[in-house]
C-alpha cells in the first residue's frame, strides 16, 4: 500500500518526471545531491561543492558569457537600434545596411568593450552563484524533496544567482546601450563612462537595474530550468543509450541542443523587458513605467526575431562552453537526477 501523502505529493507535482516508470536499482549508492555524489569520483579533479569547484564554475561562466555576448555585438547593436528607433531601422537587414552606410563596418563593433566586461562579470555571478544556490537549497529541502521539486529548485537557484549577476552587469549595460543607440555620444567605454557620470552621477549606471531584473531573472530562470529538464528528457527519450555510455563529445552535443531549445524560450520570455531597458538607457530622465506606456503592447515586441536568433545561439554556445570548461578541468558533472532509493521504498516502487 502506498503512503497516501507522499503518493499525492508525487503525482500532484507539476514539475516532476513520470514517477512510476523507473527501473529498480539493485545497489543503491551513497547519499546524493541532485544525483551528484558529494565525494570525489574517480577522475574528478575536486569534490562536488568544494571551493575549487565553485571558482572554476565561475571561471567557466566568465568564458561562456563574456566571449559569446562579445561575438554577437553587431547583431545586438542592430537589435537595440530597432527597439529605440523602429522608424529608421525597419528590419534586421535594413538595420545592418543603415549602420554600415553611416558608420562603416567598424561601426558594427560599437560597444564591444562594455559588453565583454559586463557580461564576463555577469557570467561569473550567474553560473558561479547558481551552483552555490542549487546546493544550498538542495540541502535545505533534503534529498527526497530535492528530487520531487527539482524544477522549482532550478528556478529558485537561478533567480537568486541572477539577482546578484545583474547588479554586476548594470553599469556596463548602461554604457553599452548609450554607445550603440546614441550616435555621436561616445565611441568608446573610456569616453562614455566619465561623460555619463558627469551628466547624471552614479544613478546613470544603475537606473536600469530594475528593468534588468525584469528582463534577466525570467530569462535566467527559463535558461537554467528549461536546460536542466531538456537534458533530462533528451537522455530519456532521444539519446539511444544511457549518459554513462556516451562519450564526452556526445554529451557536449546534447548540451548544445538543450541549450538552443532553452534559448528560444528565454528570448520570448524576456524580450518586452529588454525593449524597455534599451529605451531607458538611451533617454535621460526616463522611467521604466513611462517607457512601457509609450511603447505599448506592440512596441515591446520589436526586434524579437533578431533576439531569438541571438539568444538561441548565445544560450547554446554558453552551455557548450561552460560544460566544456567542466570537462577540461575534470569537474564533477552530475548525470540527470534519479529518484532516491528511500523515496522509491516509501512509494512502494521497490520490492
UniProtKB/TrEMBL annotation:
Catalytic reaction(s) noted: phosphate(in) + H(+)(in) = phosphate(out) + H(+)(out)
One annotated GO biological process: mitochondrial phosphate ion transmembrane transport
SUPFAM superfamilies: Mitochondrial carrier
Keyword terms of this UniProt record: Membrane, Mitochondrion, Mitochondrion inner membrane, Repeat, Transit peptide, Transmembrane, Transmembrane helix, Transport
Gene Ontology CC entries for this record: mitochondrial inner membrane
Compartments (UniProt record): Mitochondrion inner membrane
InterPro entries according to UniProt: MCP_dom_sf, MCP_transmembrane, SLC25A3/Pic2/Mir1-like
Membrane topology listed for this record: Multi-pass membrane protein
Gene Ontology terms for molecular function: phosphate transmembrane transporter activity
Solcar repeats: 52-136, 149-233, 250-328
Purpose of the protein: Inorganic ion transporter that transports phosphate or copper ions across the mitochondrial inner membrane into the matrix compartment. Mediates proton-coupled symport of phosphate ions necessary for mitochondrial oxidative phosphorylation of ADP to ATP. Transports copper ions probably in the form of anionic copper(I) complexes to maintain mitochondrial matrix copper pool and to supply copper for cytochrome C oxidase complex assembly. May also play a role in regulation of the mitochondrial permeability transition pore (mPTP).
Subunit structure: Interacts with PPIF; the interaction is impaired by CsA.
UniProt similarity note: Belongs to the mitochondrial carrier (TC 2.A.29) family.
Protein name: Solute carrier family 25 member 3
Phylogenetic placement of the source organism: Eukaryota, Metazoa, Chordata, Craniata, Vertebrata
Amino acid at each position: 500500500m502506498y503512503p497516501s501523502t507522499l503518493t499525492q505529493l508525487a503525482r500532484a507535482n507539476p514539475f516532476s518526471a513520470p514517477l512510476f516508470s523507473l527501473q529498480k536499482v539493485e545497489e543503491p549508492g551513497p547519499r546524493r545531491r541532485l544525483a551528484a555524489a558529494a565525494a570525489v569520483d574517480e577522475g574528478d579533479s575536486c569534490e562536488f561543492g568544494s571551493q575549487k569547484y565553485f571558482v572554476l564554475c565561475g571561471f567557466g561562466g566568465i568564458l561562456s558569457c563574456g566571449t559569446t555576448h562579445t561575438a554577437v555585438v553587431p547583431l545586438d547593436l542592430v537589435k537595440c537600434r530597432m527597439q529605440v528607433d523602429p522608424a529608421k531601422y525597419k528590419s534586421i537587414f535594413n538595420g545592418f545596411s543603415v549602420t554600415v552606410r553611416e558608420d562603416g563596418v567598424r561601426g558594427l563593433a560599437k560597444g564591444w568593450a562594455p559588453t565583454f566586461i559586463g557580461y564576463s562579470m555577469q557570467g561569473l555571478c550567474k553560473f558561479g552563484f547558481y551552483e552555490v544556490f542549487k546546493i544550498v537549497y538542495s540541502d535545505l529541502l533534503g534529498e527526497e524533496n530535492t528530487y520531487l521539486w527539482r524544477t522549482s529548485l532550478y528556478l529558485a537557484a537561478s533567480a537568486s544567482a541572477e539577482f546578484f549577476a545583474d547588479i554586476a552587469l548594470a553599469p556596463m549595460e548602461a554604457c553599452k546601450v548609450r554607445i550603440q543607440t546614441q550616435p555621436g555620444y561616445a565611441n568608446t567605454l573610456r569616453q562614455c563612462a566619465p561623460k555619463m557620470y558627469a551628466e547624471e552621477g552614479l544613478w546613470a549606471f544603475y537606473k536600469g537595474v530594475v528593468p534588468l531584473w525584469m528582463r534577466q531573472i525570467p530569462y535566467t530562470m527559463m535558461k537554467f530550468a528549461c536546460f536542466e529538464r531538456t537534458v533530462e528528457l533528451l537522455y530519456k527519450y532521444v539519446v539511444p543509450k544511457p549518459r554513462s555510455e556516451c562519450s564526452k563529445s556526445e554529451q557536449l552535443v546534447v548540451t548544445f541542443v538543450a541549450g538552443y531549445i532553452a534559448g528560444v524560450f528565454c528570448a520570448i520570455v524576456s524580450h518586452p523587458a529588454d525593449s524597455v531597458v534599451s529605451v531607458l538607457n538611451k533617454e535621460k530622465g526616463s522611467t521604466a513605467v513611462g517607457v512601457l506606456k509609450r511603447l505599448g503592447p506592440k512596441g515591446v515586441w520589436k526586434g524579437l526575431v533578431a533576439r531569438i536568433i541571438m539568444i538561441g545561439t548565445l544560450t547554446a554556445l554558453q552551455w557548450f562552453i561552460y560544460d566544456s570548461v567542466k570537462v577540461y578541468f575534470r569537474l564533477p558533472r552530475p548525470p540527470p537526477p534519479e529518484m532516491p532509493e528511500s523515496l522509491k521504498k516509501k512509494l512502494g516502487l521497490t520490492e
